[in-house]
Design a protein that fits this description.
It is built from 8 helices and 12 strands. By secondary structure, the protein is α/β, with parallel strands linked by helices. The longest helix is centred in the middle third of the chain and has 16 residues. The radius of gyration is 20 Å and the shape is globular.
Length: about 280
């Protein structure tokens, strides 16, 4: 059976493939993973002979790491700030311990893809990994800061898409938190005809994370997210809707307490960076 996981390929160890995950598919996968309640599964596409019926195609979640996966991470663990450490191994036997300076499990996949390309280009994998480990946060991209009042903000307001929304919500759910976990989400742009469906998936995924407070800012599509969150089981007390950033700041900044962890994320045009700045001020 030919299979592919979310790792890169090489010329000799594993076959090339052209599997493309659309935004709609990625959002649906994220929603299904939330229902599974696990974060250690991989999406695998498989093709096997089906006799007279031709080929049989399979699409499923898999906890295994197979020999054909050319670049693999083992023992992924997150510290209290959500920063991942793990062992990386390549099919030629190269291996080392890695600690990334960016939060979340998703950056591990990003690192593996980068490493596979570095390996294929013939560059020094140790030197490249050293450089990647030293990478700093950039403004508005998973930038974790604390206010004088002790409220921590994950400012990821530079941009958003359904899959990055899910990844940021995962980070919010796994980071250490002494108070409430709060997601402040705005609308996502440039999603075309699927925008309502994708916003609905995002709202449902946010609700499935079991957060203490869900805040949706914007217009019609913010309503779609809020409605989906309620349908997924979020209580009325947990869901908050605001038309503008200013309205949300006025209502929520006084309500936040020391120890609260607040994710702020939306497409850049929504201007949610102002919300993060006001909470931190």
């Amino acid at each position: 059976m030919a299979e592919t996981a979310l790792t890169d390929t090489t010329d000799t160890q594993t076959p090339e493939h052209e599997v493309i995950l659309t935004e709609t598919a990625a959002a649906k996968v994220a929603s299904l993973l939330a229902q599974e309640g696990r974060d250690d599964l991989r999406l695998r596409v498989a093709v096997q002979p089906g006799g007279c019926s031709g080929l049989v195609y399979q699409l499923y979640f898999d906890e295994r790491l197979l020999d054909g996966d050319a670049v693999r991470a083992f023992g992924v663990r997150l510290d209290e700030e959500g920063l991942p450490s793990f062992t990386v191994r390549c099919a030629d036997g190269w291996s080392r311990e890695v600690t990334l300076n960016l939060p979340g499990r998703k950056v591990v996949d990003d690192y593996l893809i980068a490493l596979a390309l570095i390996w294929r280009a013939g560059a020094d994998r140790d030197a490249a990994t050293d450089a990647i480990e030293r990478m700093e946060h950039t403004a508005l991209r998973l930038d974790v800061c604390a206010s004088a009042a002790g409220v921590r903000v994950i400012d990821d307001s530079y941009n958003a898409a359904p899959n990055s929304m899910a990844s940021s919500l995962d980070i919010l759910s796994t980071m250490a938190c002494e108070g409430r976990r709060v997601a402040v989400l705005g609308e996502m742009g440039e999603l075309g005809a699927e925008e309502e469906k994708l916003h609905g998936y995002t709202g449902a995924y946010a609700a499935a994370k079991g957060l203490d407070m869900l805040v949706f800012i914007g217009g019609r599509l913010a309503d779609v997210m809020a409605d989906a969150a309620r349908t997924m089981g979020a209580s009325e007390d947990a869901v908050h809707r605001f038309a503008t950033v200013d309205d949300a700041v006025a209502a929520l900044k006084p309500a936040f307490s020391a120890g609260d962890l607040v994710l702020v994320k939306a497409s850049r045009a929504e201007g949610l960076d102002r919300f993060a700045k006001e909470v931190l001020a």
